[in-house]
Amino acid sequence: MVRQPYPQAGLGGGLGRRALFGAGIAAGAALAGAPAMGAAVLGDWLDFRHRFLHPDGRVLDTGNGGISHSEGQGAALLFAVRFDDRPSFERILAWTRGALRRPDDQLLAWAFRPGAPIPVPDVNNASDGDLMVAWALAEAGDRWGLAEKRALAAEIARDLLRRCVMRQGEATLLLPGVEGFLKPDRLVVNPSYFITPAFRALARLVPDPAWMALEEGGLALLEQARFGRWRLPADWLALSRGLGRPQPAPGWPARFSYDAVRVPLNLAWGGHARSGALRAAVEFWADPTHAAPPAWTDLRSNAVAPYPGDSGLRAVASLGLAALAGRGRVEALPRVAEASAYYPAVLTLQARLAWADRGLDGNAACSEGPLAIELPPAAPPAPREGGNRGWLRGIWPVRG
């Protein structure tokens, strides 16, 4: 059971947690009416759209056999809004709602398998996908003046609060899905599902203290649930129903890997530049013992992957380094063209959105002076079994 008090200060580059949450809501309101992303970045969206978006609106996870999932649909919806691409947005939304909608609420089935006898064999949801879809709908409603999009975003937000948010001890936590994560002796969570900017966007739309409590709960969890030599979060965590600290969840490798790479992305995007988990991730990737940032580390043995991380990981690492410094050169981010598959491409574009949202390009306002951290050069990824299938295993809902 999580009983540690919430962090009281120092999580937001100088802002207290309540001030940061309020500032994030205000910034989201301003962003919704801002111009679309600049032409220099537009090419990344066009490349993503060309490579991963089917004409019918289905986003293809090319690293996992061409399946589609709610997380990918939500990410593409947000990209379409930010790049002012309403035709693509409407196609993506139509396919998403047509193929993944669940019968009893406004949440989405988590995966679609083309060519299977039953393409959606499991109607359980994935709350990160639902968050992304609702966030994108809220922004679409504001940008294009579409009340029906805002109304649908609000329905999804209310269903998330009703079905996927729970209290355990002093913490408010996000279940990864409606089913399968509440065990007799433990609760299973995925720390990368705590998407701070989405919480803030939905708090503007559906005011509820649970949104800020989710942000606080996620931050507190990350301060407790760090393991191994580099003090990193695990992809999946188990929280005991009794006393005890979070531990890597049974059923998955105890790794900082394809899921947990999104933890520093979300922390940087949310302005939590002083988070210990963000700094730990950047320091791991920049460790001088690595020839290049490794794809993962085992949190029990401290072994690292025998191959480097892909361009998506390098994008998150560059974003994290800039967030710690309060400034950076956006040219350091990889391009979508460098991505070998869907997942590194989506991480790259999300890192670009986060970079723009935080105003990191040449902005020294949050800097605390030079950082003694430098990322090692990129290395060509080595061939390995299963591509990004470590990440696919991570998004399967737990049944055991």
TrEMBL record:
The keyword Transmembrane helix applies. The keyword Secreted does not apply. GO terms for molecular function: hydrolase activity. It catalyses: Endohydrolysis of (1->4)-beta-D-glucosidic linkages in cellulose, lichenin and cereal beta-D-glucans. It comes from the Bacteria. Belongs to the glycosyl hydrolase 8 (cellulase D) family. It is an enzyme of class 3 (hydrolase). Pfam families: Glyco_hydro_8. It comes from Falsiroseomonas selenitidurans. Its EC number is 3.2.1.4. InterPro entries: 6-hairpin_glycosidase_sf, 6hp_glycosidase-like_sf, Glyco_hydro_8. This is cellulase. The chain crosses the membrane at residues 20-42. Keywords: Carbohydrate metabolism, Cellulose degradation, Glycosidase, Hydrolase, Membrane, Polysaccharide degradation, Transmembrane, Transmembrane helix.
